[in-house]
Amino acid sequence: MKKYKAYAKVNIFLKITGRRNEYHEIVSRFMRVNDLYDALSFVSKKNVQAKANEFKIIGDFDCTTKQNTIYKAYVALKEATSSQALEKLMRTYAIAVEKHIPAFAGLGGGSSDAATYLKMCNEVLHLGLSLNELAQIGLHVGADVPFFIYGYESANVSGIGEVVEAFDEELLAFDIYTPEVQISTPQVYKAYRESFYAPIDGFAADELKKKSSLDILNELDAKEANDLFNPALQEYSDLEQHYQDGYYFSGSGSSFFKVKEEK
Ligand SMILES: C[C@](O)(CO)[C@H](O)COP(=O)(O)OP(=O)(O)OC[C@H]1O[C@@H](n2ccc(N)nc2=O)[C@H](O)[C@@H]1O
Ligand SMILES: Nc1ncnc2c1ncn2[C@@H]1O[C@H](COP(=O)(O)OP(=O)(O)OP(=O)(O)O)[C@@H](O)[C@H]1O
């Protein structure tokens, strides 16, 4: 069976521009991590231990099936399309995931799996959904899902994650370090809102959106580049000891990254 790659991402910069209900509006440069991905495939239930009526995910997860973003993507797609073929597909096949992207890492692993699953279903069932439609469905699963639906190597992402604009630049290679600190994204956003709330204006956001990722990383330090770094340090005191000079913080953490040095 064909294997589909679900890539990780890093946030080169992430600035808050305002609030929207329980969410925060952001402006962020997302870049794909080309050498870090999960691999997803459909596997016939004849070859695995699974009940006919069970939604089966095979892989190394520390959450229940109902909590898995892949299952959430299935539910969202079923609601959006009422596709009988989708239900039939998941009665016949399990979804196998070779998991390489660490969880609680700020690398978008769960969101990328969900996006890839939506695209796989669209392809094998010939649902004919556009990327915009898939992104809208995916946004219900997670704010990072639309970026992975579009599949750009680099993009400016805004709104709460639903506005994705390709950014034309060279894809960078990264050294990534993921400390074993289990960070909760809602907790970090809450700490930002309560203790660090200082949204940037539209002019500053536009300036950042124009700059290449290399220029951003040369000009800003880790705290300037990511508004969630200070709140994450406040909430998770263990994080400080893992921070090394020259590294940047991805998303709500816990991963740090820097551009790979050429050998
Ligand atoms: C930190 C980032 O990963 C950066 O790429 C994203 O902004 C978060 O994306 P995500 O993990 O897919 O987030 P979701 O699962 O949609 O949201 C989890 C929780 O994070 C908070 N949240 C998330 C995204 C956002 N723009 N503002 C928020 O305040 C909300 O409390 C939300 O309930
Ligand atoms: N498909 C999935 N892959 C990994 N974790 C998942 C998945 N679905 C649900 N989870 C659960 O979601 C939580 C964090 O998952 P995820 O891998 O998306 O990390 P993250 O660091 O929150 O990503 P982000 O960059 O979006 O902040 C964990 O509790 C994990 O068990």
UniProtKB/TrEMBL annotation:
Its EC number is 2.7.1.148. It catalyses: 4-CDP-2-C-methyl-D-erythritol + ATP = 4-CDP-2-C-methyl-D-erythritol 2-phosphate + ADP + H(+). The active site is at 9, 144. GO terms for molecular function: 4-(cytidine 5'-diphospho)-2-C-methyl-D-erythritol kinase activity; ATP binding. Pathway: Isoprenoid biosynthesis; isopentenyl diphosphate biosynthesis via DXP pathway; isopentenyl diphosphate from 1-deoxy-D-xylulose 5-phosphate: step 3/6. ATP binds at residues 102-112. It is an enzyme of class 2 (transferase). One of its GO terms (biological process) is terpenoid biosynthetic process. Keywords: ATP-binding, Isoprene biosynthesis, Kinase, Nucleotide-binding, Transferase. It comes from the Bacteria. Residues 68-151 form the GHMP kinase N-terminal domain. Catalyzes the phosphorylation of the position 2 hydroxy group of 4-diphosphocytidyl-2C-methyl-D-erythritol. Belongs to the GHMP kinase family. IspE subfamily. This is 4-diphosphocytidyl-2-C-methyl-D-erythritol kinase. It comes from Sulfurimonas autotrophica (strain ATCC BAA-671 / DSM 16294 / JCM 11897 / OK10).
